[in-house]
């Protein structure tokens, strides 16, 4: 057997090319809370040479968790972007996302601009509820799984992999597996490294120097040989189901010998399967002990897509799209066209408003004119920067595939989360070169904000503080669109709404301590909505000066039933409401548009009217309207010489409100948020927890399962259940314990649908019922009509 050798994963000193798109990786770290996302990110930054020391979540000195609330609580609240290099020539743009369900919008908007994901799993807890949630949110994005915390007591690699196969409906490619040492007959095995299945080596990390790794080749006389042969055979068999080239190589060149296939050939095949979402590469480690992170970074480069290999954004026009290794994505054969999406806004104490963007095609230059195709605004962009968490590096341009930040006062006034940015990279031509209307109308898929489920009243301490309060709230919701502010017209009360109790608690803390708002924040209450049961009468407006509109408000289900190709549907950005523009002859804007005002500006004006009218609320309790549609009839017209949208805004707002006022009180229904809840309890506590859920909480129980018992899941795809049974996995004591344990030691998982109003302060109640042993996770499911027995109580309280 060869003598072991030491390898130093060299820390990068060279700058990766910013013009070779194939050398870029835009990745996100996603996982359940406390799986180790930020800890893993800190090690990635250190081993890449980006930082000189390793930050610690418990000590509050991490790079990506830089907000005071993040460091004091030890959790990630907002996504943070950072750029670093690996293997000298590759650039990685990494976004560390939150794991708590209250901050799911941070995950949603980050995934919009990412090409690949690293999903981190806790080897002790396995596949947890929020992991399933973020996995479904990242549908269609190639992923790598990193099974973390292999050094913990109760860690189960094979059990976690089996859960991954069945719960996530994915095949797995075991790139490495854990290696343990056994110091004595009575001691627990110690996790010390990994068996690299592709390169046929064992990697052991040294305790004295985190950068040195002991590498030992696995030969036929090694104690790991038999395990490696079985793992290689399983890996090649799975790859062969998709990759015919590998099958041909295996039969003709390797002569049917699984061990004879070179690592490069396997890596190439794993990459093909990963990019096609046929299977998920799986690695393991213990980030806190600095084990397994360097192979994970290698896997990011080898198995996740570059921008030219990633899924293309869904443009709203059928313009030709080409992909070039040098230019990236090229739209409409126009190499001067730049299209980018704004996905995040923050407020920097020095630079002011900063807007994160992902450039999809072309080059975005500082100081050049740009066009916001979402709002129709034209302005000049200021300086461009690349962010390293909260540290900015100024650059002259952002190339295709890159993630960067727009700065400048004009940016803060003209760009919001989800907007599409159009630019031209030739300064002398500016926007005038974009003479094709379809290019100016390009939009990337909108970032849909989930509806809030909790609200809190906010009032200034004195009347003189109201303006300062409004400015602080506006700054808060500019950064976090999942927060929403509304004002009750009758009482004048301001309500701040969010995704959960913790979400609002963080918002309150930021208002008081970061934005120095002198306000009083009330108790957290449920965010109810109203909806229509019937359509409003058709409202018509005709005037001699050329205005003609027919507008009707409908329940969403009514509009959906009659939906056809002659309608344009525009999402209203909240509460599942839409604007429907019926297409008329004058919609042929490319050839014979008869008005001075662009069509998009007219639509935006009517959208603004819809938002104002729906926010006024219904007749039952003035809750904002939900699941409603404003329909504009096809025969509308405006004066040809009109040069302002203000009259359109006023007319449409008045018509919508008039239509809503003509609907009787009884034809409005109250809606309440319903949550999917997963409660994990010991068997001896299950009875009283179930009684409380079905009684006090009005829950609808969906299922009761044994934790880790993947065979008990009713919703699993039987194909993947069979794949899990046939997948070769190394021995795992926790798998046996999960299957043979009995009595009160078994953890039970209760899944239910619960009105969110019954879940306020549920944490303390569950702790009391289970003596602190129970835990729960909940996520938004949808809005449902309040039942008759609960309606009087809700109306009385509000």
TrEMBL record:
PROSITE patterns: G_TR_1, G_TR_2. GO terms for cellular component: mitochondrion. Keywords: GTP-binding, Mitochondrion, Nucleotide-binding, Protein biosynthesis. Residues 22-308 form the Tr-type G domain. It is found in: Mitochondrion. The keyword tRNA processing does not apply. It comes from the Eukaryota. InterPro entries: EF-G-like_DII, EFG2, EFG_II, EFG_III, EFG_III/V, EFG_V, EFG_V-like, G_TR_CS. The keyword GTP-binding applies. GO terms for biological process: mitochondrial translation; ribosome disassembly. Its main location: mitochondrion. GTP binds at residues 31-38, 96-100, 148-151. GO terms for molecular function: GTP binding; GTPase activity. Belongs to the TRAFAC class translation factor GTPase superfamily. Classic translation factor GTPase family. EF-G/EF-2 subfamily. HAMAP family: mEF_G_2. Mitochondrial GTPase that mediates the disassembly of ribosomes from messenger RNA at the termination of mitochondrial protein biosynthesis. Not involved in the GTP-dependent ribosomal translocation step during translation elongation. This is Ribosome-releasing factor 2, mitochondrial. It comes from Lachancea thermotolerans (strain ATCC 56472 / CBS 6340 / NRRL Y-8284) (Yeast). The lineage of its organism: Eukaryota, Fungi, Dikarya, Ascomycota, Saccharomycotina.
């Amino acid at each position: 057997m060869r003598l072991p050798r030491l390898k130093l994963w060299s820390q990068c000193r060279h700058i990766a090319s910013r013009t070779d798109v194939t050398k870029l990786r835009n990745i996100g770290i996603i996982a359940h809370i406390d799986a180790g996302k930020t800890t893993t990110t800190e090690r990635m930054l250190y081993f890449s040479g980006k930082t000189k020391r390793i930050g610690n979540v418990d000590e509050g000195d991490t790079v990506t968790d830089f907000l005071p609330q993040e460091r004091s609580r030890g959790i990630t609240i907002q996504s943070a972007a950072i750029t670093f290099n690996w293997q000298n020539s590759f650039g990685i743009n990494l976004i560390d996302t939150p794991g708590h369900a209250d901050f799911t919008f941070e995950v949603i908007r980050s995934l919009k601009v990412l090409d690949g994901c690293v999903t981190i799993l806790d080897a002790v807890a396995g596949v947890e509820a929020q992991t399933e949630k973020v996995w479904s949110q990242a549908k269609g994005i190639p992923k790598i799984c990193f099974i973390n915390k292999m050094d913990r007591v109760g860690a189960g690699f094979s059990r976690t992999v089996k859960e991954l196969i069945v719960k996530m409906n994915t095949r797995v490619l075991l790139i490495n597996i854990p290696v343990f040492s056994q110091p004595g007959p009575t001691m627990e095995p110690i996790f010390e490294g990994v068996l690299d299945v592709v390169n046929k080596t064992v990697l052991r990390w040294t305790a004295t120097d985190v950068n040195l790794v002991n590498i030992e080749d696995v030969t036929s006389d090694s104690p790991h040989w038999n395990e490696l042969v079985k793992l290689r055979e399983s890996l090649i068999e799975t790859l062969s189901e998709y990759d015919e080239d590998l099958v041909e190589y295996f039969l003709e060149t390797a002569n049917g010998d699984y061990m004879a296939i070179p690592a490069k050939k396997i890596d190439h095949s794993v990459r093909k399967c990963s990019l096609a979402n046929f299977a998920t590469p799986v690695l393991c480690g213990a980030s806190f002990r600095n084990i397994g992170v360097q192979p994970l970074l290698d896997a990011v480069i080898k198995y996740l897509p570059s921008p030219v290999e990633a899924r293309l954004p869904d443009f709203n026009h059928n313009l030709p799209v080409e992909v070039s290794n040098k230019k990236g994505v090229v739209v409409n054969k126009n190499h001067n066209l730049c299209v980018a999406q704004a996905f995040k806004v923050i407020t920097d104490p020095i630079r002011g408003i900063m807007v994160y963007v992902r450039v999809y095609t072309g080059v975005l230059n500082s100081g050049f004119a740009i066009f916001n195709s979402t709002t129709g605004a034209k302005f000049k962009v200021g300086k461009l920067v690349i962010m390293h968490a909260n540290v900015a590096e100024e650059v002259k341009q952002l190339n295709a595939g890159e993630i960067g930040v727009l700065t400048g006062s004009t940016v803060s006034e003209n760009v919001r989360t989800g907007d599409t940015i159009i630019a031209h990279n030739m300064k002398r031509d500016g926007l005038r070169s974009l003479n094709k209307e379809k290019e100016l109308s390009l939009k990337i898929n909108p970032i849909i904000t989930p509806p809030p489920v909790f609200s809190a009243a906010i009032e200034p301490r004195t009347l003189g503080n109201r303006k300062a309060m409004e400015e602080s709230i506006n700054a808060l919701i500019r950064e976090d669109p999942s927060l929403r502010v509304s004002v009750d017209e009758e009482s004048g009360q301001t309500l701040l709404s969010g995704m959960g109790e913790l979400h609002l608690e963080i918002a309150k803390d930021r208002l008081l301590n970061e934005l120095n708002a002198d306000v009083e924040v009330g108790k957290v209450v449920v965010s109810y909505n109203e909806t229509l049961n019937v359509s409003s009468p058709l409202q018509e407006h005709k005037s001699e000066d050329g205005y003609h509109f027919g507008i009707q408000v409908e329940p969403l289900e009514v509009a959906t039933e009659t939906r056809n190709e002659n309608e344009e549907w525009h999402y209203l950005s909240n509460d599942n409401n839409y604007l429907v523009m019926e297409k008329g002859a004058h919609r042929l804007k490319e050839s014979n548009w008869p008005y001075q005002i662009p069509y998009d500006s007219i639509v935006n004006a009517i959208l603004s009217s819809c938002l104002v009218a729906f926010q006024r609320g219904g007749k039952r309790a003035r809750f904002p309207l939900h699941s409603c549609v404003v329909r504009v009839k096809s025969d509308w017209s405006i004066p040809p010489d009109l040069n302002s949208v203000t009259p359109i805004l006023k007319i449409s707002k008045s018509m919508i409100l008039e239509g809503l006022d003509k609907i009787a009180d009884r034809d409005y229904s109250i809606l309440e948020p319903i949550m999917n809840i997963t409660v994990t309890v010991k068997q001896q506590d299950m009875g009283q927890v179930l009684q409380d859920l079905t009684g006090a909480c009005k829950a609808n129980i969906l299922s009761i399962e044994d934790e880790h018992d993947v065979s008990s899941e009713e919703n699993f795809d039987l194909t993947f259940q069979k794949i899990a049974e046939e997948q070769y996995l190394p021995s795992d004591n926790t798998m046996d314990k999960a299957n043979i344990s009995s009595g009160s030691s078994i953890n039970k998982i209760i899944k239910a649908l619960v009105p969110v109003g019954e879940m306020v302060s549920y944490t303390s109640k569950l702790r009391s019922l289970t003596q602190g042993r129970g835990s729960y996770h909940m996520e938004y499911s949808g809005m449902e009509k309040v039942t008759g027995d609960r309606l009087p109580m809700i109306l009385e309280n509000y």
